[in-house]
Design brief:
With about 750 residues, the chain is of the alpha/beta class. It has a 6-stranded mixed sheet. The chain has a 5-stranded parallel sheet with strand order 4-3-2-1-10. Strand 5, helix 10 and strand 6 form a beta-alpha-beta unit. The structure holds alpha-D-glucopyranose (GLC). Alpha-D-glucopyranose binds next to loops. The site of alpha-D-glucopyranose (GLC) has 7 residues, from loops.
């Protein structure tokens, strides 16, 4: 075992000892560190493994003995057992790294990342990440494959649920908060892990929103919109980055030298571990880029990809590439060095079990503090999209029917929750029964969550699909729901996607609420117009019909373990909604990709004008149904016009932009004040507006508060025509508001003067 390092990092070993270790390792041992295997290789008896997964993957016992990491298993006793056995056989007793997709919770499930972004509260996001890392680390894990930093603009792509939305600034704040929450300042400390920023880079821009499809956007768009969030995660100290499945401009991201060496290593200064996505190195053969697996191994290693996730591309071909002098062993040494450094940063040479502790597992998983935090995060993630006649908060003296497949569903998780227990979730019905007068309350499921869509999901091999009920049973469910609606004053309808309808490999061409639920909605609407829709989904959906005829819509995303409590807290007014949309909600899928920070055109469309030759659709509006940054509260706010401290900003100066915000309603409320700026003319066309800051203010009725934003030159920098990053003198327009929409014609002008 390597001796302890100096006092500064009491949990790590001296670099010189690590160097000695590397120099003492055999080539087989070194290459072993560069493969990640599934847990099954270390769980079943060796005979079964050798005749099963190992045979299938052509992995030798030598490699199993030397592999550097495993993925997708948690549970402290199991991981302690695996580590103990493994280290006995590893020639230098180098510990395994345990990695898993802990995306928005291990046992206590927090809102999905898209919902956490809707809080516009990075500090809260960080706290959720800290709690998530605490549960994962005491369960024996060292690395989580989070945060996903992919910028998204296309709601057809199922992984938008895992992103922080369409804006580079908001995504950057969310990603850095997650990395800091997961890693802290020193990942060797208790309850900290390594984050893994993924998927580098531009995966959110897959063509037509179709999963794993090619990405064909310009270098400037990549650098301007897609790179910032990855960089924010790397600047926050991420210990790992993951490559991506797609091609960029015809070259697979996983073997793309410009992307992985020039950008990631050289420009972004990332010196941590680069892991491939699942099988992505081998898939470069399928892409038609690598001739064969040997070629794939050579191309990936030459791009400094350190770990091959779950294939034998590296372990089956690197040795031969060295023997044939196609690559130098020094390439292997660099990769293994980064892997050993990460293990050292985690303190694994000092303590290979790190925070794994059965007692702490019992103490912290789903503890009351984490549940309270999950409830608070869910409340703040909800976005109130509509609230006609202030039907919300509910009048508890009224007769209320809770109808819909999510009324009593415990599936408030997402497809990325791998080890939760659905019985730990609080449903809406659970929460209602705790506080409502049940003599005036009725619950009816009304319909199944899925009908025809179930077939689509089934053909993707997903098991967890609701069993089809008989026609009679479904008819009875609907009739009971209609009766309940007729007998009630208000109907709360909890509708939405199946949890397996968003996430990886769930691209959808028709992004609507399942039709069987819309049929129920229409049937209920016929007998009761006072409908509040609570929406469970992992992506923006086409909500036109709901938006036209529901009186209120509360977007709750995938709210997690405390979803039921959080929803009832908001429906009853115990808590007020404050979330804002991190992604535009399309009017129709025909608009997609639709996003607020689009570029102007030479023929901009002016609402209401009949000019033929304008940039518009002739059959649908240009605007989304609900814009980025939008969200209602239970009160009203008034905002003064913007006051500027001057009209010229100098390179090293600061301009102040201030507004007075007043709560003119009858209830306490929280508003997210957003700062947008437009560069009116530049060496490349700049977006019609860009989010440059936000501040949340909570005000009592009648209370007012001044909100001040500092405007600095660095906020105005962009990728200029010559490819360099910087600002350009000239005119800018600035808005301060509570959404990205509106005020197009107003805004305040100011100038940037770069002369010394
Ligand atoms: C998946 C995902 C990636 C995940 C990895 C390990 O295919 O693309 O996000 O971390 O495999 O499960």
């Amino acid at each position: 075992m390597l001796q302890a390092a100096n006092e500064r990092e009491e949990n790590t070993v001296e670099i010189s000892k690590l160097r000695e270790l590397l120099n003492d390792m055999s080539l087989t041992e070194k290459i072993g560190q560069m493969v990640q295997l599934r847990e099954t290789f270390y769980q079943d008896d060796i005979e079964h493994v050798l005749t099963g997964p190992a045979k299938e993957m052509n992995i030798s016992p030598e490699i199993i003995k030397n592999a550097g990491s495993i993925l997708s298993v948690d549970g402290t006793e199991e991981l302690i057992r695996i580590q103990k056995n493994y280290m006995k056989n590893q020639p230098h007793h180098i510990p395994l790294l345990f990695m898993m997709d802990v995306i928005h919770g291990l046992k206590t499930i927090f809102p999905i990342p898209l919902g956490q972004a809707a809080t516009f509260e990075p500090k809260l996001v960080k706290r959720c990440a800290e709690a998530m890392a605490k549960e994962a680390s005491v369960s024996g894990l060292h690395v989580t494959f989070a945060p996903m930093a992919d910028l998204v603009r296309d709601a057809r792509w199922g992984r938008v649920m895992e992103s922080a939305g369409e804006d580079p600034y908001l995504s950057s704040r969310v990603v850095e908060a997650m990395v800091k929450g997961i890693q802290g300042d020193d990942m060797s400390q208790s309850y900290k892990m390594s984050a893994c920023v993924k998927h580098f880079a531009g995966y959110g821009a897959v063509t037509a929103g179709r999963e794993y499809n090619s990405v064909d956007i310009g270098e400037r768009a990549l650098k301007e919109y897609h790179f910032p969030a990855y960089k924010a995660g790397i600047d926050a100290g991420a210990g790992m980055v993951m490559t991506a499945f797609h091609t960029i401009d015809g070259i697979p991201a996983t073997t793309n030298s410009w992307l992985l060496k020039d950008i990631l290593r050289d420009q972004m200064k990332f010196d941590g571990v680069l892991i491939s996505d699942f099988g992505a190195i081998q898939e470069t053969v399928v892409h038609g880029y690598s001739e064969d697996m040997e070629d794939a191994a050579q191309k990936a290693i030459s791009c400094d990809v350190d770990i091959d996730m779950m294939t034998n591309t590296y372990v089956g071909h690197l040795q031969k590439l060295i023997e044939n002098k196609i690559i130098d062993e020094s390439c292997i040494d660099e990769c293994v060095w980064r892997i050993l450094m990460l293990k050292n940063k985690l303190g694994l040479f000092e303590n290979p079990y790190k925070d794994a502790d059965p007692e702490k597992e019992k103490q912290y998983l789903l503890c009351s503090d984490h549940r309270k935090l999950a409830r608070q995060a869910a409340i703040k993630s909800f976005v109130l999209l509509k609230n006609e006649k202030n039907i919300l908060p509910l009048d508890l003296k009224k007769k209320i029917a809770f109808i819909g497949p999510y009324t009593n569903s415990r599936q408030m998780n997402s497809s990325w929750v791998l080890s939760d227990d659905c019985n730990t979730y609080v449903t809406i019905e659970d929460a209602v029964r705790e506080i409502f007068d049940l003599s005036r309350t009725v619950f009816e499921k009304g319909c199944q969550l899925l009908k025809n869509e179930a077939d689509l999901l089934r053909n993707t091999g997903i098991e967890d699909i609701p069993k089809e009920l008989s026609e009679e049973a479904q008819k009875k469910m609907c009739e009971d729901a209609i009766w309940a609606a007729e007998e009630s004053d208000i109907v709360v309808m909890s509708l939405g996607e199946h949890f397996m309808q968003s996430g990886e490999a769930t691209s959808r061409g028709v992004i609507e609420i399942p039709e069987v639920q819309m049929e129920l909605f229409r049937a209920v609407r016929k007998v009761n117009k006072n409908i509040v829709v609570v929406l469970f989904n992992g992506r923006p959906l086409d909500l036109r019909e709901i938006s036209e005829s529901a009186q209120a819509i509360l977007e709750v995303w995938r709210p997690g373990t405390e979803g039921g409590h959080a929803i009832v807290d908001v429906l009853t007014g115990k808590e007020s909604p404050s979330g804002k949309l991190p992604m535009s909600f399309l009017y129709s899928v025909g608009q997609v990709p639709v996003y607020y920070n689009e570029l102007p055109t030479g023929r901009p469309y002016k609402e209401g004008t009949l000019q033929r030759f304008q940039s518009k659709y002739i059959d649908i509006p240009n605007k989304p149904l609900y814009p980025f940054g939008y969200g209602l509260t239970y009160t009203d706010f008034e905002m003064s016009t913007v006051e500027m401290s001057g009209d010229t900003l100098h390179e090293t100066g600061t301009l102040l932009a201030r507004v007075m915000v007043k709560n003119t309603g009858k209830r306490m409320g929280t508003e997210t004040i957003q700062l947008y700026i437009r560069d009116i003319a530049a060496s490349v066309v700049r977006p019609v507006k860009e989010l440059k800051g936000f501040q949340k203010v909570s005000l009592k009725p009648g209370e007012k508060k001044e909100v001040v934003f500092e405007i600095k030159e660095e906020m105005l920098q962009f990728i200029r025509a010559d490819g360099t990053k910087g600002s350009e003198a000239g005119k800018f327009k600035l808005w301060i508001g509570n959404s990205s929409a509106g005020q197009e014609e107003t805004g305040v002008d100011f100038f940037l003067n770069l002369s010394k």
